[in-house]
Amino acid sequence: MKLRAVVIVASLVLAPMVARAQMPRTALAVDARLGAGFIVGGTAAVVAQPSLTIGARLIDRIQIGLGVGFYRLSSPGGGPNGTNQTTFTFAPTFEVDILKAHDNKAAWYFKGGLPMGAEVTTPRNFFVIGYDAALGARYCPHPNFAAALEGGVTGIFVDPNGNGGFGVTTVYGALVGTFYWGK
Fold first, then answer.
1. End-to-end CA distance of the chain, in Å?
2. Which fold has domain 2-182?
3. H-helix or E-strand containing 13?
4. Which of 20, 83, 95, 129 could form a disulfide with 75 if both were Cys (CB 3.0 to 4.6 A apart)?
5. Which of 61, 65, 67, 60 is nearest to 35 (CA)?
6. What angle do CA 58, 91, 104 make, to 5 degrees?
7. What does pTM read for this prediction?
């Protein structure tokens, strides 16, 4: 008898939540991205690319934000025989939903960003600028949470105006969790 009451109460509470589970029209949006990729035309190193973006969802299709990213590249050998690169970036980011499901629970989107920051090395640090472009698929099982898979290309240019400047282009994949707060 008690189990029956719990099931009835749970269905009354959860049914409206599942029914309205869709991406909000406007909201605070926080994206946590866990990505990894491979360098194009370079070493066989795997590049870790976690990031956190805080911004807003506007007019039901557009998200803007400022991301904080970490780009770590290390290949065997270290020093002169290998590569060790740690980069911290801030990235203004723009996302637009290209295609959306009629019920507003799923979307195929494009993301673009302009990472800028510094490569941390010894004895000095270098200015970094880059690009980030990706396509992703997002699904919203709850009104305040969405999960996505994303694939794209990102480039980091270290000390672009200096004599020792170089660039690294990476093809990556990422798992993205988004928290929404709004309607």
1. 38
2. Porin (2.40.160)
3. helix 2-19
4. 83
5. 67
6. 30
7. 0.78
